[in-house]
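Exercise (ungraded).
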Amino acid sequence: MIIVKAGGSAITDKTQDFTPRLPVMEGVAAQLSRITATEQIILVHGGGSYGHPLAKEFELNKGFHDKSQLEGISQTRYSMTELNQLFLSCLIRNRVPAVAVQPSACFVCTSKRISLSFLEPIKNILELQCLPVLYGDVVSDSKMGVCILSGDQIVSYLAHALSVEKVIFGLEVDGLYTKDPQYEDAELVKDITFSDLNSITGGETGDVTKGMKGKLSEISKMEGIEVNLINLTKEGTLLKAVQGNVEGTWIR
Amino acid sequence: MIIVKAGGSAITDKTQDFTPRLPVMEGVAAQLSRITATEQIILVHGGGSYGHPLAKEFELNKGFHDKSQLEGISQTRYSMTELNQLFLSCLIRNRVPAVAVQPSACFVCTSKRISLSFLEPIKNILELQCLPVLYGDVVSDSKMGVCILSGDQIVSYLAHALSVEKVIFGLEVDGLYTKDPQYEDAELVKDITFSDLNSITGGETGDVTKGMKGKLSEISKMEGIEVNLINLTKEGTLLKAVQGNVEGTWIR
């Protein structure tokens, strides 16, 4: 079983609020329609410009502290479902039997980490040979009231809870770089071990972007599972990675 | 706490596939925005013409028997979420802090009855003073693979699991009639006890429509809770029922 994470910055335009990148979703869907013939897949996607602006405006990641945030909880959930429906419509059009599973209905966090889950529906969907689709969401937090549960944390949780062999992170850049890829001398890391990864995530040298740091911190929890980082905005990279031809970063 | 069930035949046009009745949803949302100031509400809605045509086409209520049904599971879930999002957009516009909870992510059935549930997110949403919104859905069934979980069954399950004082069923007719209301001599039943109700649901006399029979069978499981049946397509009926002025059928 493979978990594919479609990053929020790949499937949406993060520079413009509520702007999907439909060609990227369509491309993922087309590739998955071929992949699902031989592989069992779980798809998890991020929120990008459908989640972050609202979560930030209503300070949802600081927990529940004020009634004015209720509107924000409501709107963020609605907005994430809108993005999820766009992705699902691409998948259904490509004849992928995709089924959404709302994370806020089956996960509860304690201090921003998943502490309770209800995985029976996901297991059942996989048994039926359907493809479960999850996403970053505003979820209940037993300490903070609510919190943001990132798609990346869902991936690392499911990778441990289910029999997952490989996790593919689809980004809007080619993979992990030696420093922020906006610098000219940044170099793509093609192959790295989990122990070397820990030295990158442990440092505060600003070598990688803030978003990548959070991702690497989740990835470091997946030791023992093969992890690929690929550029989802480039054609065919997902299909190639599934076939073992990773045009990006290979972590093992 | 009050559970409001918005019937699929009230919020959609059942004679035309995928046709919402937006003015009815808007009316419910406007009434709920006043009601939620003093009452804690759970909203559950049916599928109407967003659920039944697909569920029937793909024989989803007969359980999983054929790979051709996968497309049906996928499409029905997508379609129910579409209807749910329409309702949510009305609620959000009316400043109701509504939060969808996907039933297929938190309920599992065995032979069409709920056998497992994960209610923590619903309880948390209520604690935050948000309004959880659930709906009829295609859910996992440990015996049949999948089944249709009706909004009515969700209502009777939650009525027992949580501290619910009243359940209001919003219909497209005024309430329970002595026979199918399309007959001229059908009379509205204004007040009925649970024991008299059992004599109606127990009979096979064709006194009520098939849809109403299923509903009454769920209602008969709610003895001890006040149940109202009202016409949701008429203005103000929901607000009146909450205030104790039931223009329809009162079951107690």
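Further reading is listed at the end of the chapter. For now, observe: Chain B touches chain A through 43 residues (CB under 8 Å). The CA atoms of residues 182 and 209 of chain B lie 10 Å apart.
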